Structure formats: structure tokens, C-alpha cells
Amino acid sequence: MAFSVGVAREDITPEVSGFLFGYNNHTRSKSVNDNLTVTVLAFRSETVSAVILSVTVCLIHETLAEEIARKIEAATSIPARHVIISCTHTHSAPRTTYFPRDLHFGDLDTDYCEGILIPKCVEAARKAAANTHLVKVGIGTTQSLAGINRRQLLPDGTVILGQNPWDTYDPTMTVITFNAYGKPLANIVHIGAHLTASGNNHEITRDWAGVMADRLEAESGAVTLFLNGAQGDIAPRMANGDSVGNLQHAMEVGGLAGIDAVRAYKGIRTFYNEEIQVTSGELSLPAKEGNDVWRAKQTLLRVGPIVFVPFPFEVSAEIGLRLRAYSPFAHTLLLACTNGSNSYLPAQSQLCRGGYEVESFTKYREYRLPDDSDTRLINQNLELINHFI
Predict the structure, then answer these.
(1) What is the DSSP string of 252-266?
(2) Which one, 26, 62, 282, 346, has the greatest CB density within 10 A?
(3) What is the pLDDT of residues 250-307, one digit of tens each?
(4) Which pLDDT tens digit goes with each residue over 128-183?
């Protein structure tokens, strides 16, 4: 049942003056507030190997994620299907995906992807896989108010991007720590919220999650990576009452989230020898009209009672809550913006109200997906999760 873990990190900060992604096609960086990184955990047992990458960019296109996975396989012999590439979703990073031109987000930054992103992801994975240690696993959870539902409802029923304190939000923050020889080796922090606290700024930054990860890293002495959960309709909870702010707001939210992460970490009392498993399959959704089918390869990683479930969408909080409630595993962690970028995946209950997330789901893709896409994908992932039983 024993398994080993390796961890490595590489700097993926671009040169200043490049375009930033997430609000428009013309915002350029003028300075670096904090460096962007890719942090990798490599998992190995006698029969299984896998890696998780936490990349501090907004989104990574499927074809780019597949290229990175293939090159990691060539460098490490870890199967490309066992490579999970998760974006933290900071908007203060280069353009690493494509979007329809009518969204006006700009073109893929090919020079950055080829010159920095791809080689650094591969190098971090190679280093992590080459230096693994037998570990025990500890799990802590706490309630965090780092995020808040952002589908603000106006008196006339219009939905705008803001803050909605009475709508769905998942406050569960999960902290996982891997101890080697009795000492902390690496941590994971998981919670779902957009990394938009810095707003439409000109500084390169990991946003609030970077502050949080740095705080836990300093407290624990272990490399810490952030995996974003069901964040599609969740904003950082900021004092301005909006869904975007500035660097000061990012520091404030990150500081509060850091306190939460340290609290969950220090609450861990028991460490376990666990087994790891990987299962793979395919996700698919029919078009609402016509004969087209959306398909994506899917790989789930289990570490004892923890299951990592990638979603190549920005996923609404309700979907993450439902998936965890239905799953037989106590810590079923949905990873949004992972192994691809297919815009938003709202819950079916949200479609009647419209709003930005719903419009993105219904309009900005090659063809419209069915209204019950959330239920279909939950059930397809539950079928894969049941392979672990």
C-alpha cells in the first residue's frame, strides 16, 4: 500500500510588457508583483504512477495540455493519460488558451507557451518524478470565507457579476499534507474561487491564492500548491462588494485564506499509509441540436479517501457539492480548469436566470451542450469513481 511522492517547482514568469489574459485583448503587464510558478507532485507505487501540475495561469487549452502531457511522458515514463494539469485561474498571467474572437480575449501567446510554459512544466515534472520519498498522508478541513457567490441578483431579476451572499457557496477548504520521514514534504490546498481579486491590473501575480500558499509554506516548511475547485460562479470575498478588485484586495483575501489554510493544517493529527489508484475513461456530451458530440479523456487519481476529479470547465459550486455528496469517498475534490478549457459549466438550475456564466455556456462554443450537462458529467464521473471500490 505504500507509495512515494516527489515535489518540484519551476518559475514560469513571463517577460514584462506581454499581454495578460482574462478581461480584454489589450492589457499588458508593467511589473511583476510575484513570480508565476508550476508546482508538480509526482506519485509512485509499485504499479501506479501519476503527476499533478498546479500551473499559475488562467487556462490551458486542451491541445496544449495534451502536448505537455506527451512531453512529460517522454521525460518521465509516466503515462500521458496519468498527467493532470490544473490551472489556478489567475487572470494576471499570459494567454495560454484560445477563445472565440467575439469574446475579445486575444490570441494564444505562442512564444510564451513554447519558450517558457511547456519546457518548465516538463522540467518540474522530471525533477519531481526523479526524487520521490515514501510518505504518509494527513488530511485537514476547515470552513473558509475566502469566496462568495458572484451571481448578484438585481431587483429586476438581472444577474450581474458581483457578490451574492445568499446563493450557493462551498466553504470547505481541504488541506492535504505528505510527510516523509516524519517531516512535511508537500501540501495541497483545495477550495473553489476565482482568482480575480487583483482586477484588470498591470502586475503579473498569482493573485490571492499565491498569498495563501506562501503563508502555509512558511508555516509548514513544505512546498505548497493550490488546486482550484468548483469556482465558476464564485468570486473572492472582498470588502468592495464586487467580483474584482486590486492588488490590495488580493493581499487581504489571501491573508485571510492563509489563516484558514494554516488552521486546517495544524488541525491534522493523524497520518496514514494509503494506497494510490488511477482510473481512466471518457466524458461525452451530445449537442443540444444536431449530431455532434463533445468528448474528453478523463483520468481520476485516488489517494486513500481522497479522489481528484478533473473538469475541463469553469464549474459552478453546486456541481462540486453534488459530486462530493454522491461520492463514496469523503474527500472528493473537483478540479476546475484542468486538462483543458471549455468555458463555463453552470448548474441546470441557473440557466433560467441567465447571466455571464450561462451566456458563456450557451453561446461561446461550436455547438450548444444540453441543459443537463451538469447531471450527465456528474454521473459519468461517479461511474469512474466506482472503479475504485
Answers:
(1) HHHHHHHHHHHHHHH
(2) 346
(3) 999 999 999 999 999 999 999 999 999 999 999 999 988 877 899 999 999 999 999 9
(4) 999 999 999 999 999 999 999 999 999 999 999 999 999 999 999 999 999 999 99
For 204, the grid coordinates are 503579473
CA distance 8 to 127: 6
How far is Cα of residue 376 from the mean position of the Cα atoms in its chain?
Answer: 21
- Cα–Cα dist 163/236, whole Å: 9
Task: Give dist(CA 83, CA 67) in Å, integer.
Answer: 11
Residue 267, amino acid:
G
From CA 110, how far away is CA 95, in angstroms rounded?
Answer: 9
Instruction: Give me the residue spans of the domains in the chain.
Output: 4-133, 134-266, 276-388
For 247-372, where are the alpha helices, taking DSSP H only?
Answer: 247-266, 317-326, 356-363
Put simply, whether the predicted model's pTM sits higher than 0.70 gets the answer: yes
Residues 6+ apart with CB under 8 A from 368: 287, 288, 289, 362
**What is the number of residues in the chain?**
389
Where b means 16+ CB within 10 Å and e means fewer, 134-166 reads ebbbbbbbbebebbbbbbbbeeeeebebbbbee
What span, in angstroms and rounded, lies between the C-alpha atoms of 25 and 47? 46
Low-confidence ranges of the chain (pLDDT < 50): none
